Each structure stands twice: as C-alpha cells, then as structure tokens.
C-alpha cells in the first residue's frame, strides 16, 4: 500500500506533537461477548501473507515513516546480564536515537524513542539516566516472562516498579487462564494488576505464541481490555513465536471492536523479533489500514524492540548519504 505522504520531513511527521488518549478504565466482564468472538484462521493468514508485498513507501516518504517508527519504539533491554552501564548507554541512545548529523540532515532534531523498557531492578538507573528528557520508563513486572510467581508478589512487584519511577508497566497474563477458558480468572487478575498500576499505564502482554489459537488471542485481547489494559501487547520476546502479522490482525480487530462498542481507544504493542526497518513499515501500514492514523502515535502504538533501531538507523544513513554503514556501528541499538 501507499502510506499517505507526510507534509514535510519534520518532527511532526515523526508522530509529534504529543497527544494523549483518555485511559481505558475497563468495563464489566461480558462473557457472552467474549464467547461470541471467533477468528477465521485461514482468512486471517491469507490476508497477512499479502501485506509485505503490497507495502511501498520510498525515498523521503520512507525516511519520514522510519522516523515515525523511531518515535514509537519502546527501546528495550531484557537480558539476564543487563548492567547499570548497559542501561545507561541504552538511555543515551533513547535520547539521541540516531546521530545528530543524520537528524539535522533529515530535519528531525529532537526526535526520541517513545520509552525505555527494562526489568524492575533497572528502573532507578533508567529513571536517573532519562531525567529531564520526558522519556518514560516502562518496567516489565509480574514475574516476567512466565508470570508464574505468587500472585501477591506479582502485585507487589508492580507497586515497587511504580514507586521506583516506572510510568508504564508491562504485565504478563497467566496463559493457563486462557488455555482453560477461565475468562473470569483472567479478568479478575488483570483488573487487580491494573489497580496496582495506579497512574502508571498498563500494557498487558498476552504471550500469543503460547495461547494455542487465534480465537484464544482474540478472546484474551478482549478480556484484558475489559479489565482496563491501556495497551495489549503480543509477546515478551522470550516465547518461541513472538509478534506475527496474523496475531496483529486479530488483536487490531479486537481493539477496533472494543472501540466501536465503548468509544475507548486501547493501544497496541507488537513485540519480539521485530528487527528490520521494512518489517516496521509493514506493521505501520497494517495499523493504518485497520485502525487509522490516530493509532500511529506513541499514546496508542509502540514497537517493543531491542534491535530495530539499529536497522532503521542504517536505512536513514543510506537515505542521507547513499551508502549503508556496517551493522556493527549500530550495535547498541
Ligand atoms: O518487549 C520487548 C521485547 O522483549 C523485545 O524483543 P526483541 O529483543 O526480540 O526485540
């Protein structure tokens, strides 16, 4: 598809000025609605398969959309060997996601990523390193990635992450509630997590690669939105299958249904394995087709990605200079 041409290659084209959708306060669990939801797997897979081939944005339009993609990244490090030093370097990258020379050439001075996403223990370091930047810190709490620690500890972890300065909390759902069709338990658990988040925005990670069917993905999406999730997110990045286009179609349509029924906009975060600039453009095109431009802003869309920024930077370098830089020059991103 042809994405509309942004007027100019400016910060505005990259997703600014900031807008803030009202929060999703949730609604009572509607089991009838949940059970009516179906997913036509073969139709969804057919549609998803046509998407990468139909995308076509070139030259300055492509550069503008790649800058938009940067403004939508939750720049992430979630490794067992994370150190304060690595998190500080990541935060420096978040403030200045591509070289100042490139930003000046693109007219994109001031461009930053949307947030930095880290484990609970790294929240104070990230908060300190991002001070004054306006970039929020997101914490993966609730026994990430499996979410199988005692429930009271998962709630406590959320509270501690918020107290340490996290403005966004990425929770993981209990996959077993989905696999056993226990929507009541999923709703109640997610609702309590939302309460523990307080003012912090909550992204509900479904771990779609472990939910078995696309119908389960649709129903889990809906239950999490009913329970008050501000975002629904595909994956932790640790499952064997993470973000995919079919899962994205299902989740976007659940978001559209919820919006049509309630008037509330819930955000979407594909995460895990999105590492190429062209994949990011495919996701943006799909969101634009399914939900419209309003969802292509940081308050309603994020990429959860640890290495996407590096490839986008390489493509922008090519746009400006006509040459590709070596991948190792962008190792951190
Ligand atoms: O939430 C973010 C993901 O964990 C990042 O996954 P990734 O390292 O495959 O980009």
From TrEMBL:
Q: Which pathway does it serve?
A: Carbohydrate degradation; 2-deoxy-D-ribose 1-phosphate degradation; D-glyceraldehyde 3-phosphate and acetaldehyde from 2-deoxy-alpha-D-ribose 1-phosphate: step 2/2
EC number(s) given by UniProt:
4.1.2.4
Please name the SMART domains in this protein's record: DeoC
- Catalytic activity annotation: 2-deoxy-D-ribose 5-phosphate = D-glyceraldehyde 3-phosphate + acetaldehyde
InterPro entries given in the database record: Aldolase_TIM, DeoC, DeoC/FbaB/LacD_aldolase
Question: Which keywords does this chain's UniProt record carry?
Answer: Lyase, Schiff base
GO molecular function (one): deoxyribose-phosphate aldolase activity
The keyword Flavoprotein belongs to this UniProt entry's keyword annotation: no
A GO cellular component annotated for this chain's UniProt record is: cytoplasm
- The name on file for this protein is Deoxyribose-phosphate aldolase
Q: Per the UniProt entry, what species is this protein from, by scientific name?
A: Rubellimicrobium thermophilum DSM 16684
| Source lineage | Bacteria, Pseudomonadati, Pseudomonadota, Alphaproteobacteria, Rhodobacterales
């Amino acid at each position: 598809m042809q994405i509309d041409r942004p007027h100019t290659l400016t910060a505005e084209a990259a997703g600014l000025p900031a807008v803030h959708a009202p929060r999703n306060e949730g609604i009572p669990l509607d089991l009838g609605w949940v059970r009516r939801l179906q997913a036509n797997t073969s139709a969804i897979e057919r549609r998803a398969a046509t998407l990468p081939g139909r995308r076509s944005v070139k030259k300055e339009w492509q550069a503008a959309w790649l800058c938009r993609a940067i403004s939508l990244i939750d720049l992430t490090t979630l490794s067992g060997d994370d150190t304060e030093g690595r998190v500080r370097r990541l935060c420096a990258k978040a403030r200045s996601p591509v070289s100042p020379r490139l930003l000046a050439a693109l007219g994109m001075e001031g461009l930053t990523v949307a947030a930095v996403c880290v484990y609970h223990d790294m929240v104070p370091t990230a908060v300190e390193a991002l001070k004054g930047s306006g970039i929020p810190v997101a914490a993966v709490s609730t026994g990430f990635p499996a979410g199988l620690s005692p429930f009271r500890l998962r709630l406590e972890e959320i509270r501690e992450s918020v107290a340490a300065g996290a403005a966004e909390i990425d929770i993981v759902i209990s996959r077993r509630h989905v696999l056993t069709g226990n929507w009541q338990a999923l709703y109640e658990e997610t609702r309590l997590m939302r309460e523990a988040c307080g003012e912090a925005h909550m992204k509900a990670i479904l771990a779609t690669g472990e939910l078995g069917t696309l119908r389960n993905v649709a129903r889990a999406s809906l239950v999490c939105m009913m329970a008050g999730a501000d975002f629904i997110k595909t994956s932790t990045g640790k499952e064997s299958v993470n973000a995919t286009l079919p899962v994205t179609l299902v989740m976007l349509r659940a978001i559209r249904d919820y919006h049509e029924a309630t008037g509330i906009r819930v955000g979407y975060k594909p995460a895990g394995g999105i590492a190429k600039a062209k994949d990011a453009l495919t996701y943006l095109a799909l969101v634009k087709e399914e939900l419209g431009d309003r969802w292509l802003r940081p308050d309603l869309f994020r990429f959860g990605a640890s290495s996407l920024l590096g490839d986008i930077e390489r493509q922008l370098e090519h746009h400006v200079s006509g040459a590709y830089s070596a991948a190792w020059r962008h190792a951190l991103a």
